[in-house]
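Field log, afternoon session.

UNIT: design team B
ACTIVITY: writing a sequence onto a fixed backbone
BACKBONE:
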């Protein structure tokens, strides 16, 4: 787990050493254990060192900041070069099955220098090129300098667990693990992307479609490689190596499926526990994180493993009792993180700088405090349950797709039964199911008809003219599978992974996600709808079944879906410090994207007369983000 960055120029890059040093300094929190740099110029050997300013100038430079997790010795140092000095790799993440890949007979003649997964990847790339990418089980973002191929290759894991951003400006291709380093060296302007800003404010979606909130910076999409020709770096091109499968191929029964899922899940947790440092876990008390804690206990037999839980005492969203139940069952040491909501007022701007882009709710702050507690306790690796909701249909909204699929197949009775089982939310569920069938060309009119215009009165219509486009994905698949792929690729998961990556790496912590492997996703997307959402509306049906005997039945039988939530509205209602923060937010000129009603609503919150809604929070977060990141709003 590390930070990487680099530059490729059409011609020698002025001040290359200084720019590389600044990139490395901006990424120091991602890798405080070591640093490494490389430069290259035409017809010269690669130059390597721990100080960029000591290296010769050139038109290619690589940066690596190291957080040592596997192979703690100097043999894990990067940039990692091959024996003849014609290829170099900077790598962020982990290849969990590196031991199995290292045993590949094709590598039997390789002269190993150390025991890192990076060296295994470098050897495989040198021998097999990009064809190796679909075989990797891990989270990764890397840059591979391939002089024989006259190219620099960037690649990102199938789910985008590890970030990788790039920009092209003034004849220089630049990339980095985070946005801020690119902005600070002038590789990109601070101009906002209006479509991305609209998606965030209106639909609470960021990281959609490969863009960012900055118009000049994009991200390598999950499951893609980006090739940058050394002789024409502006002609870079993207190539997918993995996409979520959409064909439903499973033909076995429920018991057989549960057994297969359990085996896949336990193998994944086992791989994710590989490290040369201790591994702990976060625990919410929900099914997903409970499954990981239970699997760690089952696989290792270890008692008293620390697990970390966020708690908001007295709030309806507090899951501490469930976490306590799971911790007792796994004989784990439960460590509670319960900061007062007032603390958010003094930490929000720092969190915004950490996240670099606006975020949905104050739960991101709660996650940051949990990760900080893990690192303060001396740990460098933590497992969490991210991704299970997206691949096993854990969100209640997925029920709408199941209802729609049942209606399309004429199974009206089953659909009505599912609606009845949803209780008071059944009517809303039906409207959602019917709304999913509205053709895209008619969705704007349909939204207006039900009182949900694409541009509500608190957004400035003139500023967003021509940009009111909701995110969508275009694949031919049944409704539920289409929704799962959209959540994996476009809406839910990309945001959540970004939040977790930034929060963890801000405190030099590696966050691992055992539910997110290609094998598990491929299996989940092969299942019939009934094994994901039951006829009674139960979500994650098969996952619950697969975890029986590992996780207490009381947790598996939960029907409430809290998620990782905070009592956001209550915090702002009760805290003078938070209301003062809102007042400060609206004290200056508002950004041109917000209309007067948005500011009026925030003023009401500041005075104690209004409630902090989700939309209000996004407006305030956007205001403070624009200040913190010095955003330019093009007119």
């Amino acid at each position: 787990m590390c930070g990487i960055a680099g530059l490729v120029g059409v011609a020698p890059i002025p001040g290359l050493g200084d720019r590389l040093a600044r990139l490395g300094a901006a990424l120091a929190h991602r890798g405080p254990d070591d640093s490494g740099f490389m430069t290259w110029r035409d017809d010269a050997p690669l130059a390597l060192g721990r100080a960029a300013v000591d290296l010769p100038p050139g038109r290619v430079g690589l940066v690596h900041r190291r957080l040592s997790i596997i192979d703690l010795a100097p043999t894990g140092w990067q940039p990692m070069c091959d024996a003849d000095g014609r290829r170099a790799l900077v790598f962020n993440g982990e290849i969990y099955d590196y031991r199995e890949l290292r045993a590949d007979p094709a590598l039997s003649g390789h002269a190993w220098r150390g025991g890192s997964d990076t060296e295994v990847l470098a050897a495989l790339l040198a021998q097999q090129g990009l064809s190796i990418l679909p075989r990797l089980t891990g989270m990764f973002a890397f840059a591979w300098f391939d002089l024989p191929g006259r190219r620099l290759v960037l690649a990102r894991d199938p789910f985008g667990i590890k970030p990788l951003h790039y920009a092209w400006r003034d004849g220089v291709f630049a990339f980095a693990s985070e946005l801020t380093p690119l902005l600070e060296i002038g590789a990109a302007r601070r101009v906002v992307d209006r479509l991305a800003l609209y998606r965030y404010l209106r639909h609470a979606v960021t990281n959609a479609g490969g863009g960012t909130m900055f118009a000049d910076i994009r991200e390598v999409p999950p499951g893609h490689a980006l090739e940058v020709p050394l002789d024409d770096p502006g002609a870079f091109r993207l190539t997918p190596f993995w996409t979520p499968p959409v064909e439903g191929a499973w033909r076995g029964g429920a018991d057989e499926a549960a057994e297969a899922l359990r085996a896949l899940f336990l193998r994944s947790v086992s791989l994710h526990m590989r490290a040369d440092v201790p591994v702990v876990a976060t625990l919410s008390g929900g099914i997903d994180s409970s499954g990981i804690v239970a699997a760690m206990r089952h696989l290792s037999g270890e008692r008293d493993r620390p697990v970390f839980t966020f708690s908001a005492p007295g709030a309806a969203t507090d899951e501490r009792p469930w976490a306590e139940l799971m911790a007792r069952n796994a004989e784990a040491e439960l460590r509670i993180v319960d900061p007062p909501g007032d603390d958010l007022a003094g930490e929000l701007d720092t969190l915004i700088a950490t996240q670099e882009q606006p975020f949905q709710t104050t739960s991101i702050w709660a996650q940051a405090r949990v990760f900080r507690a893990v690192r303060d306790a001396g740990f460098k690796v933590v497992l969490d349950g991210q991704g299970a909701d997206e691949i096993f249909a854990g969100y209640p909204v997925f029920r709408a797709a199941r209802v729609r699929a049942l209606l399309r197949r004429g199974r009206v009775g089953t659909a009505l039964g599912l609606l009845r089982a949803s209780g008071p939310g059944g009517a809303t569920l039906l409207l959602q199911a019917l709304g999913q069938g509205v053709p895209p060309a008619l969705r704007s009119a349909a939204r207006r008809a039900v009182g949900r215009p694409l541009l509500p009165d608190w957004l400035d219509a003139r500023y967003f003219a021509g940009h009111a486009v909701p995110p969508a994905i275009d694949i031919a698949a049944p409704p539920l599978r289409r929704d799962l792929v959209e959540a994996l690729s476009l809406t839910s998961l990309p945001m959540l992974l970004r939040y977790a990556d930034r929060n963890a790496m801000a405190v030099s912590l590696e966050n691992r996600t055992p539910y997110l492997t290609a094998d598990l996703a491929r299996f989940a997307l092969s299942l019939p709808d009934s094994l994901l959402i039951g006829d009674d509306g139960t979500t994650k049906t098969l996952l619950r079944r697969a975890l029986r005997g590992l996780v207490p039945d009381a947790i598996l039988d939960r029907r409430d879906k809290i998620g990782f939530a905070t009592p956001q509205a209550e915090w702002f209602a009760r805290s003078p410090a938070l209301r003062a923060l809102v007042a400060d937010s609206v004290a200056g000129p508002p950004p041109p994207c917000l209309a007067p009603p948005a500011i009026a609503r925030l003023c009401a919150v500041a005075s104690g007369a209004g409630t902090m809604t989700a939309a209000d929070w996004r407006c305030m977060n956007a205001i403070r983000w624009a200040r913190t990141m010095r955003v330019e709003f093009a007119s």
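LOG NOTE: The longest strand covers residues 87-95.
NEXT ACTIVITY: expression trials, pending approval
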